[in-house]
Amino acid sequence: MPEPTLPPSEGAAPSHSHSGVSRLIAHVRGMAPVRTAVVHPCDALSLGGALDARAAGIITPVLVAPRAKLGRIAQEAGLDITGCEVVDAPHSHAAAATAAQLAGKGEVQALMKGSLHSDEFLAAILAPEVGLRTERRLSHCYLMQTASYPRPFIITDAAINIAPTLTDKADIVRNAIALAHVIGVAQPRVAILAAVEVVNPRMPATLDAAALCKMADRGQITGALLDGPLAFDNAVSPEAARVKGIASSVAGQADVLVVPDLESGNMLAKQLEYLGGAESAGIVMGARVPIVLTSRSDSRATRLASCAVALMLAHAQAQGQPS
Predict the structure, then answer these.
(1) 183 in helix, strand or coil?
(2) CA 307, CA 283: separation in Å to the nearest integer?
(3) Would you tell me how many other CB atoms lie within 10 Å of the CB of residue 7?
(4) Could you please report the per-residue DSSP string of 198-213?
(5) What is the distance between the alpha carbons of residues 278 and 269, in angstroms, rounded to a whole number?
(6) What CATH topology corresponds to 20-188+255-318?
(7) What is the pTM of this model?
(8) Residue 214 CA neighbour count, 13 Å, CB half
(9) Are the CB atoms for 192 and 234 separated by under 8 Å?
(10) Which pLDDT tens digit goes with each residue over 107-164?
(11) Are 108 and 36 in contact (CB under 8 A)?
(12) pLDDT per position as a tens digit, 171-183
């Protein structure tokens, strides 16, 4: 499978490629659009993003929102929702619950966040009666690409798990590996990041990194090569790894960067977007359906790319591929 190229984030520095959206769309062309519940798309950006993805043949949107409010927003923004299925819900909380139920019943195969809080959106998905939870913890993955690195890479988790435990991190790694497999990386190289590349008992992130690597050695985490702790420089720079004397199949060529906590991951991803011109898409893994968890600052291009990743995941799930 060819590596996807991702769209530049709005507000970010100019990217090395202006064809990221078209190339990613070309990659998923031929796949049937995924029926996607778009939850409370009650602003022009989220509604426009869903309609863009419909126009690109990526999703078949089911708009779950207050019908009258949705119509008013579409009219004010000059957006045409003719032909879109609309499920009337009185407010954002009801919209999230209704969309989660649709996914749980198999009536939609993906979920997309609109203009509501992430906590409200995810709480509905995690409700036990809905049936969308799996044995894994939910985690967010940024799929990113920047001019200074030779391949797309995944950063996780920068949006959901604030201070993950070792058990949480194991699921975060498993989810990232599953995503890497779906985008065509057969044996992803997973770097467990810390501030240093040696185990230091006073730095818990280094202990977790070492434990995760031993879990991989023992077959508790499979499908990838793990190494850590690795500092960011020697995870992505072969020269930095060489200077530090690190002999590793992961160092300098990581496909997945696993951060210690949400704050570090969020800052790393946004620095890459806004200062490094990185292209990005975001997806939530670990549920029975792919979840597009958009940010209010995401551009329509980023939303489109995220929907394309959701389509790839939904297609893989339909074929019985673990994700």
Answers:
(1) coil
(2) 8
(3) 29
(4) S--TT-HHHHHHHHHH
(5) 9
(6) Isopropylmalate Dehydrogenase (3.40.718)
(7) 0.92
(8) 8
(9) no
(10) 999 999 999 999 999 999 999 999 999 999 999 999 998 888 998 999 999 999 999 9
(11) yes
(12) 999 999 999 999 9
